[in-house]
Amino acid sequence: MATNKDLLNSSKAPEPVGLYPHARRVGNLLFLSGVGPRERGTKKIPGVELDEQGNILSYDIETQCRSVFQNVKYILEDAGSGWDSLVDVTVFLTNMKDDFATYNRIYAEYFKDNQPCRTTVEVNKLPTPIAIELKCIAMID
């Protein structure tokens, strides 16, 4: 049975938007909650311009991708794992048609040495005004 000591939170990744940890350890696996591009300590989303009502005016998928990958790296490292320990990545995009090619190019930069299994799906919307979110599983000693 998992206990609260199995719940892991990063001091560098953005705060969760609900009641969940950044990651949970089960045996030698580390399950990450969905990770977006927000920055810790702020509601700022790199590469996103919002209007006063919080609607997306424009966004830069490349900036968001790089920020998401950095946040995943923060969580992995703070939990005692690492980028090379990723074994499965599920990617949620809100605009597959316009964003997949850019995301796929940047993904290849970050994962050229480690190639986890990957699934990419398009979703209508994510909980915050972001265009990408990752759900990851990694090995941990």
Summarize the structure.
The protein has 141 residues and is α+β, with helices and mostly antiparallel strands. 24% of the residues lie in helices and 28% in strands. The protein has two helices and eight strands, in the order βββββαβαββ.
Describe the structure.
The protein has 141 residues and is α+β, with helices and mostly antiparallel strands. It has a single domain (4-139), classed as RutC-like (60s Ribosomal Protein L30, Chain: A), CATH 3.30.1330.40. 24% of the residues lie in helices and 28% in strands. It has helices at residues 61-79, 96-110; strands spanning 7-8, 23-26, 29-32, 48-50, 56-59, 86-93, 117-122, 132-139. It has a six-stranded mixed sheet. A two-stranded antiparallel sheet has the order 4-5. Helix 1 (61-79) packs across helix 2. The protein is globular. The protein starts with 6 loop residues before the first strand and ends with a strand.
Sheet of most strands: 6 strands, mixed
Order of H and E elements: EEEEEHEHEE
The percent of residues in helical segments reads 10-25%
Give me the secondary-structure category: alpha+beta
N→C terminal distance? 18 Å
Number of strands: 8
CATH names the topology as: 60s Ribosomal Protein L30, Chain: A
Per DSSP, the total helix count is 2
As residue ranges, the low-confidence spans are none
CATH architecture grouping = 2-Layer Sandwich
Strand content: 25-35%
**CATH fourth-tier homologous superfamily:** RutC-like
Question: For the record, what CATH class applies?
Answer: Alpha Beta
Strand order of the largest sheet: 1-2-3-8-6-7
Q: Given the C-alpha coordinates, what overall shape results?
A: globular
Radius of gyration: 15 Å
Number of domains: 1
Output mean pLDDT: 95
